[in-house]
Amino acid sequence: MRMFNHAKTYGGKYKYGEVKNIISNGEFDHEIELASGEKIQTRSVVIATGMVERIPESIKGIHEFEHKGVSYCVICDGPLFKGKNIAIIGGGNAAIEEAQFAAQFANHVYVFVRTEKDLIADKISVEQLKQKENVTLLINAEINELIGSSNVEKVIATINGESKEMDIEGVFPYIGQVPVSAFAKSLGITDERGYIPTDESMETKVKGIYAIGDIRKKDIRQIATAASDGTIVGKILANRL
């Protein structure tokens, strides 16, 4: 937010909206289509949409109960479930770390890991989690359905092949992230996983369209590398003005 306000003080303009498509009419001639129907003409486009948590589509009710018991951030929304039973879905470091945090305020934390192979978190972190009295690590377990009137009240899960109904009011999936790039696919600039390859100047194969941060195809995704990407393309565009 501080950087956003800083940009505004220097005359930066902003617009809220959802980008549905980007059309390239030629070199440095592009059109951005918004969900509202508005179209914006521009010489250059910088894509910095990053990634979002992967949604476990196989769980019935996962969309209906979003923000009504389903969240993708324990640090943000976890305290709302103080004294309640919650479920963490996933076996990576993010899932285990969030489960450790949730154990501080939840009545009980159930960690659902689909298979033994999916438990890929650091062994030390897993062992530390197992020591917590209000945490249960469930292997060969997955949630199938969410039940509730206005908010999640129960879940139906399969544990070691057996169906079980459990009193759980908060569900937090941590099964990886996916790049936000669907709007750019018509340009042909995304790879098979949805990331956007660029050259060293952050430019894609379409002249005037750049990608920076986690959306960009690269080996390391950290705040430092994202800031570096932004600095490079910012300098290039400033010189072009």
Automatic annotation (TrEMBL):
One of its GO terms (biological process) is cellular response to toxic substance. InterPro entries: FAD/NAD-bd_sf, FAD/NAD-binding_dom, Ferredoxin-NADP_redctase_2, Pyr_nucl-diS_OxRdtase_2_AS. It holds the Pfam family Pyr_redox_2. GO terms for molecular function: oxidoreductase activity, acting on a sulfur group of donors, NAD(P) as acceptor. Residues 32-230 form the FAD/NAD(P)-binding domain. Keywords: Disulfide bond, FAD, Flavoprotein, Oxidoreductase, Redox-active center. Belongs to the class-II pyridine nucleotide-disulfide oxidoreductase family. This is FAD/NAD(P)-binding domain-containing protein. It comes from Biomphalaria glabrata.
